[in-house]
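Data availability (excerpt). The following record was deposited with the supplementary files.
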Amino acid sequence: MQIELKRIQREIGITTIFVTHDQEEALTMSDRIGILRDGRLVQEGPPEEIYDRPKSEFAATFLGDANIFRGDSTGNGIRLPDGTAIAAGAGATLAAGAKASCAVRPERIRIAIDGGAPDAANANMLRGQVSKRIFAGNNSTYFVERAGQTLKVIVQNTGADRLAEGQDVVLRWSPESTVLIAAG
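Predicted structure:
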């Protein structure tokens, strides 16, 4: 029905304002999305931009899931309280030393028993332990404990070996999948 409504809107050439709390519906139906918080517009733009480049922790967690890391800015990423550095994508800059956070979507993280050799495409790495796995047919959601934080990782089910609860794992993702966000 959503696809048919969008087709009719384009065919007739009408502008429609659609108000919803259904994230998938907003992404599917919209050419542009506006996110409101306490009656104020916090971000507006095309669905892909809002999803891939949220400007605040609120926008990152309101539209989809996001793993949020907090620390001090390194200029082009953050340093976590335990000293681990997380690099953000090209063009992401904040004043070094400022409080900052970064957001990473659960489907952008790769999970494995062995981290393998580091490469530019998966330069960010954290170790953790699987605390829960939820099978949902076409994908599985893993919850990974790391330094007192629960991280969410969504993996397409390909028939490969599944990771067990309690298993030590390595998480890797690209700096391009990391959105740097100023504190505030």
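Summary of structural features: The mean pLDDT is 90.
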